[in-house]
Design a protein that fits this description.
Distance between the termini of chain B: 49 Å
Number of domains of chain B: 1
Helix content of chain A: 25-40%
Number of domains of chain A: 2
Number of strands of chain A: 24
Distance between the termini of chain A: 22 Å
Strand content of chain A: 15-25%
Radius of gyration of chain B: 17 Å
CATH class of the largest domain in chain A: Alpha Beta
CATH architecture of the largest domain in chain A: 3-Layer(bba) Sandwich
Helix content of chain B: 55-70%
Structural class of chain B: mainly alpha
Largest sheet of chain A: 8 strands, mixed
Order of helices and strands of chain B: HHHHHHHH
Shape of chain B: globular
Largest interface: A-B, 50 and 47 residues
CATH superfamily of the largest domain in chain A: FAD/NAD(P)-binding domain
Number of helices of chain B: 8
Number of helices of chain A: 14
Oligomer: heterodimer
Largest sheet of chain B: none
Number of strands of chain B: 0
Structural class of chain A: alpha/beta
Chain lengths: 550, 171
């Protein structure tokens, strides 16, 4: 609303538009359009953004198509009421088909990178080792991937966070220390961060080095075209070649089709719509799938939530949202044993907290009045490494992708252990009460009480709150056709001119926040694609000094 | 506590059938809206559900009715931003709540929504919350998220919970 913000914070997107970026807003189309390019990229998130920059730098004509709108710092007002409908898939209310898991995914230019919490981890070595032994992915070990992670870390300003963790994160470390549980500090992709705590509503100062302010502007400066508010509907496939991509233009609110269509034609197509929308697009297109693998093995890092109430103020809405983690419980059992989990702290804002925590009426209102004293803790289950953890599958319902993700006893065992761990750490950190996110739970006043109560909580669908901000898999990359629809070079096996470059490639979950895993893998695959399409060495993207917030 | 107040829950499979069909009947009798429409008895249902979910959060006295109205409008606005298939699901839920036989069977509320007491509404919400039918649990979940989300999205709700809101210079 206020004009002040646009006055003193430079908006690189508005500046780019003024420089003459080629942008087609689907909501403003007055006629159907056909656009031609060398490469069409579906999605502008972590995979699409990185790919777009590298291909554009290589001199290829690129069209990026994005379902969300182009919004930038002047639109980011740190308000949940505006951010969730405008920046997230399904107003941040996306769920699995049985409504057992709530899913946060971005839907805006920059995809989830525009709204994520900046946590940057390289793919853990044990995960890569598992992909080699179980999915035949040779040459993807930690050593082979290191240069790609280093490249993207430099490109996106990933570094140690210099400020002290906020109290919400410090409590995770304090409690873990008391119990002899190891923890570490999270690296972040920020430059000149104001330490505000509103990353999830779009960075108002352009400090977060999301795709919105890095690779997408770079690609557009190198001649790429961005098509927004256009839903990739289906590929036109003839034999083993994609001949075109049909897109449905959306109305300005992004909800209903506008009636206009776009047809995009290119030599090559890259799918990077995220791990629900990418397989759904390929399913709608009847892409060849001889082993019925497409859309299967979708993983979520199913996430459990625990609220600790502390005597002191925590102010979990303020400050860099995620700066402390613990991988202790990823290492207490073999990777293919009972589910391990990563511990982190989430930022808390009124809508996120009130809808995540169970109950209603006076009990819920009393909890909300303690808001400044609540510390949030998350446990992300590392799914996909055990025969009992086969993930979910994407299918079509009325043309839209929906995710079936059955919650089984193997998962509930991990959920119970995770809720116990979080309560123990919160009490060790000095909590006066702990309230697990579960329909039958209440606030427990001591670890002794919580331990007995959580052990007895029924772990079941709709009873235990489960959330996810990390959707992975569904277009598995593997060494052979029986284990994955995508080859190790990112090419869709049964189509000659289609690649997949996003988190849907992962054969399992990552066991860490996935953005840097996607950046590194997409950089490697896009560099290979650039070489093949141009016959020249691939360019190396670099951060431009102008991208840094003043 | 377990007898009379749970009698309507014997509905069981019949309830599920009503839930599945009820929305469709309501939809067929409406002018097939593409987007969610909140009218008549459906609006009255939401008007009765909001104060039960927000009990303890709503202001007392003069501002109460305006606060309830604001929350109802907030829910309506939130639904309007959902994908059309999800809007249809929510439409089905409210269509069901608007049908008197379904309301009696599944919520135990005998008279119309405008006469329902907060305690009656809270009772059916609590029953849906833990119900053995997944459909009713998800219906409770939708009402929980819509109403609480709409309420705490408003700056007017923030003072009571000690949330300072965004930096004025940036918002």
């Amino acid at each position: 609303m206020s004009a002040q913000a646009t006055g003193f914070i430079p908006d690189p997107v508005q500046q780019g538009i003024a420089r003459g970026w080629r942008i087609v807003d689907g909501a403003r189309l007055e006629t159907d359009r056909t656009l031609d390019a060398d490469v069409v990229i579906v999605g502008s998130g972590a995979g699409g953004g990185v790919t777009a920059e590298i291909l554009a730098l290589a001199g290829l004509g690129v069209v990026i198509v994005e379902e969300g709108a182009l919004r930038s710092s002047r639109d980011f007002k740190m308000r949940e009421a505006e951010a969730y409908p405008s920046l997230y898939q399904e107003s941040a209310a996306r769920q699995t088909a049985d409504k057992g898991v709530k899913i946060l995914q971005g839907r805006t230019v920059g995809g989830s990178t525009t709204v994520n919490w900046t946590s940057s981890f390289r793919t853990p070595a044990p995960t890569l080792d598992y992909w080699r032994s179980q999915f035949g992915l040779e040459g993807f070990d930690a050593e082979a991937m290191a240069p790609w992670f280093a490249l993207m870390e430099a490109r996106l300003g990933v570094g140690d966070w210099q400020a002290a963790p906020n109290e919400n994160n410090a409590l995770l470390k304090r409690g873990a220390d008391k119990l002899g549980i190891s923890s570490g500090l999270i690296r972040r992709n920020v430059k000149g961060c104001w330490n505000l705590g509103y990353c999830g509503m779009g960075c108002p100062t352009n400090a977060k080095q999301s795709m919105l302010v890095t690779t997408i502007p770079s690609a557009l400066d190198h001649g790429a075209m961005l098509v927004t508010r256009a839903r990739a509907e289906r590929f036109e496939i003839e034999g083993e070649r994609v001949q075109g991509l049909l897109c449905t233009a959306l109305q300005a609110d992004g909800v209903a089709p506008s009636g206009r269509q776009l047809r995009l034609r290119a030599k090559h197509y890259v799918v990077a719509g995220g791990a629900i929308n990418s397989p759904a697009l390929l399913l709608r297109s009847n892409a060849p799938d001889p082993y019925a693998l497409l859309g299967t093995r979708t993983f979520l890092h199913p996430t459990l939530i625990s609220a600790g109430i502390f005597p002191q103020r925590v102010d979990a809405y303020a400050g860099a949202p995620q700066t402390v983690y613990s991988d202790h419980f990823l290492h207490t059992a073999p990777i293919d044993g009972p589910l391990g989990y990563k511990l982190e702290a989430p930022p808390l804002h009124p809508v996120l907290l009130s809808t995540t925590m169970n109950g209603f009426g006076a009990d819920h209102a009393a909890m909300m009045r303690q808001f400044p004293h609540i510390q949030g803790m998350l446990a992300l289950l590392r799914d996909g490494f055990h025969a009992e953890s086969r993930g979910g599958s994407v299918r079509l319902k009325g043309g839209a992708g929906v995710l079936d993700y059955p919650l089984n006893d193997f998962l509930w065992d991990g959920a119970r252990r995770a809720l116990l761990t979080m309560a123990e750490i919160q009490f060790a950190a000095g909590a006066s009460a702990v309230r697990p996110a579960h329909e039958s739970a209440r606030a427990y006043a001591s670890w002794t009480e919580a331990k007995a109560a959580i052990a007895a909580l029924p772990q079941a669908l709709h009873m235990t709150r489960v959330a996810s901000a990390h959707v992975m898999g569904g277009c598995t990359m593997a060494g052979d056709a029986r284990r994955g629809v995508v080859a190790p070079d990112g090419r869709y096996r049964d189509l000659a001119n289609l690649s997949v470059h996003d988190g849907s490639l992962f054969p399992t979950s990552i066991g860490a926040n996935p953005q840097l895993s996607i950046y590194g893998l997409a950089a490697r695959l896009a560099s290979g694609l650039a070489r093949e399409l141009t016959g020249r060495p691939a360019p190396r993207p670099q951060a431009a000094p102008g991208e840094m917030a003043s | 506590m377990e007898t009379s107040r749970r009698s309507f829950l014997k509905a069981g499979a019949i309830g599920a059938l009503v839930l599945a069909v009820g929305g469709g009947i309501y939809r067929a009798t409406q002018s097939a809206p593409e987007r969610f429409v909140l009218d008549g008895e459906a609006r009255a249902a939401l008007g009765a559900i909001v104060p039960a979910i927000l009990s303890g959060a709503l202001p007392a006295g003069a501002g109460r009715q305006a606060a309830i109205a604001a929350a109802v409008d907030g829910v309506h606005a939130a639904i309007a931003n959902l994908p059309l298939p999800v809007q249809q699901e929510v439409q089905d839920l409210f269509g069901l709540l608007a049908l008197a036989p379904a309301r009696r069977l599944l919520t135990g509320i005998a008279g119309g929504w405008s006469k329902a007491s907060e305690a009656e509404v809270a009772r059916f919400l609590q029953d849906w919350r833990l119900h053995r039918l997944a459909l009713l649990r998800t219906a409770y979940g939708a009402l929980h998220d819509l109403v609480l989300g709409a309420w705490y999205a408003q700056p007017a709700s923030w003072r009571a919970i000690g949330y300072p809101g965004p930096l004025p210079e940036l918002s």
